[in-house]
Amino acid sequence: MSASLRGALARAGLRVESEEFLALVEDAASRLAPADPDPADYFDADQRAALADVGLDLSPRAPSERDSRARAVAAQAVLRDTALTVTGAAERVAVDPSRIRHRLADGRLAGWKDRAGWRLPVWQFTDAGVLPGLPVVLAAVPPDQPPLVVAAFMTTRQAELRLAGKPITPRDWLLASGDPSRVADLVATLGTPA
Questions:
Q1: How does residue 67 score in pLDDT terms, banded at 50, 70 and 90?
Q2: What is the Cα–Cα distance from 55 to 155, expressed in whole angstroms?
Q3: What is the pLDDT of residues 134-180, one digit of tens each?
Q4: What would you give as a GO molecular function for this chain, any one (predicted)?
Q5: What is the DSSP secondary-structure string of 45-73?
Q6: pTM for this prediction
Q7: Which of 44, 64, 144, 188 is most buried by its number of CB atoms within 10 A?
């Protein structure tokens, strides 16, 4: 595999072989919408007319345009590669793996099941445990929000969360002993119109 891909993975701190990472990318891409969807197919005639009236272009992507799915595929592959297994999470938190499964079932940890078993996004863990206030935040996550959206929210600076006058990520807010209900209020709006 190319030295540039190995170098990029190493610089990003991803401990994965190039071939395995490419397999993750291929798997993530296969789960997305078709490569060349026709946006108009997602709407009925009245909806298409209303969207066109406000200036939205529902034309299919031109062959010369970049595939907008590339960033999502890469993000999904990184999320999957950095996620912990039940055993890895149990070691991180210093509990039996059965406790991790109980926390997943109770909604006190976030995760998803894939062919290899449970995967738990690493953003919810600290070096020695679970992010403070995590159960309050997870209880407010809308059920239709996929792990990638929640991970992006938790690791993106939010203007409403400030420390020393600067916006910080919800994860950093919780690490700094910020009120988890502030993060819960924000995460509850994921997927709702602005």
A1: low
A2: 32
A3: 999 999 999 999 888 899 999 999 999 999 999 999 999 999 999 99
A4: DNA binding
A5: HHHHHHHHHTT---PPPPTTS--THHHHH
A6: 0.68
A7: 188
Q: What is the pLDDT confidence band of residue 24, given thresholds at 50, 70 and 90?
A: confident
Structure tokens at 40: 């108009």
Compute the C-alpha angle 54/59/61, nearest 5°: 130
What does the pLDDT average to over 56-75? Answer: 71
d(CA 132, CA 182): 13
Q: How far apart are CA 25 and CA 144, in angstroms?
A: 23
Q: At 48, list the tokens.
A: 């298409």
Distance (Å, whole) CA 24 – CA 89:
21
Q: Where are the domains of the chain?
A: 3-58+66-79, 96-187
Tokens representing 18? 């190039």
Contact 161, 173 (CB under 8 A): yes
| Cα(103)–Cα(145) distance, integer angstroms | 19
Q: At what angle do helices 97-106 and 86-93 cross, to 10 degrees?
A: 100
Helix, strand, or coil (residue 159)? strand
Kind of pairing, strands 158-163 and 117-119? Answer: unpaired
Residue-wise pLDDT for 91-118, tens only, equals: 999 999 999 999 999 999 999 998 889 9
